[in-house]
Design a protein that fits this description.
Order of helices and strands: HHEHEHEHHEHHEHEHHEH
Strand order of the largest sheet: 2-1-3-4-6-5-7
Number of domains: 1
Largest sheet: 7 strands, mixed
Radius of gyration: 18 Å
Mean pLDDT: 91
Number of strands: 7
CATH superfamily: Thiamin diphosphate (ThDP)-binding fold, Pyr/PP domains
Low-confidence stretches: none
Shape: globular
Helix content: 40-55%
Strand content: 15-25%
CATH topology: Rossmann fold
Structural class: alpha/beta
Number of helices: 12
Length: 257
């Protein structure tokens, strides 16, 4: 049985794959949580040395500053297309994309859907903060109805703007994906479930089960014009009701065979 000090190390020790560097994201941003969860997973499976990340344009592009792995930068929206090529050429590598909602669900919608439908054997980590973050807070496909952004100053309306797209539910209807889930990083309990989902997604890839997708609800205090704590409350009270958390598809080995 582990001693108390050993237990504390297990909880608080920095993952080896997580680079010891200054955190530059805005206060209240959840990218740091996601980076840590991905790093823990790569360490646990012992695959960091053969992992290739493909970072989308936006705040996600800074992946190479935080994870000690090989990282490629994809043109805006093309991460799934780039990851397809990398994985097909290097079948022995662990490949994942790291993308925001503007990158994945708007500019990269076609690449995402078709990679999922083909069942490409890589993992997608999708950080959904309901707008374009780095480029100025514009409306994205995931922007909630009534939400004000720099390109919807009076709030998103379904008349002309359409409705927010639920990516996890949509991709789960396709035959190709092996695992599709939505999680959040707003509370310790949700972070635990997020870690479980990310571990499962990478395990699916390791087992050659096909396309795996984890959507992670995240706060963007700067573009939401809120402080860090109020942003987490907004995530809980507004985003989670529209984007419910859970596993939407999970293929078993028997199903795959």
């Amino acid at each position: 049985m582990a001693k108390p000090a050993e237990k504390m190390d297990a909880v608080f020790q920095r993952p080896e794959t997580l680079i010891d560097t200054n955190f530059h994201f805005c206060p209240g941003c959840n990218h740091g949580n996601v980076h840590k969860l991905v790093a823990e997973t790569l360490d646990e499976y012992g695959v960091a040395g053969k992992t290739i990340g493909v970072a989308g344009v936006g705040c996600c592009v800074f992946l190479y500053n935080y994870l000690n792995i090989d990282v490629l930068e994809a043109p805006h929206g093309r991460a799934c297309a780039e990851a397809t090529g990398v994985k097909r050429v290097h079948k022995d590598k662990i490949v994942f994309t790291y993308q925001g909602d503007g990158d994945l669900a708007a500019i990269g919608m076609a690449e995402t859907v078709h990679a999922a439908n083909r069942g490409e054997n890589f993992t997608v980590i999708f950080v959904n903060n309901s707008l374009y973050g780095m480029t100025g807070g514009q409306m994205a496909p995931t922007t909630l109805l009534g939400q004000k952004t720099t390109t919807s100053p009076y709030g998103r309306s379904h008349e002309g703007d359409g409705y927010p797209i639920r990516m996890a539910e949509m991709l789960a209807t396709l035959e190709g994906p092996s695992f599709v889930a939505r999680v959040a990083c707003d509370t310790p309990a949700h972070i635990v479930k997020a870690r479980q989902a990310i571990r499962k997604a990478f395990k699916m890839q390791i087992d050659n089960m096909g396309f795996s997708f984890v959507e992670i609800l995240s706060a963007c205090p700067t573009n939401w014009r809120l402080d860090a704590l109020t942003s987490q409350k907004k995530l809980q009270e507004e985003m989670v009701p529209y984007f419910p958390l859970g596993i939407f598809k999970e293929r078993s080995t028997a199903d795959y065979l």
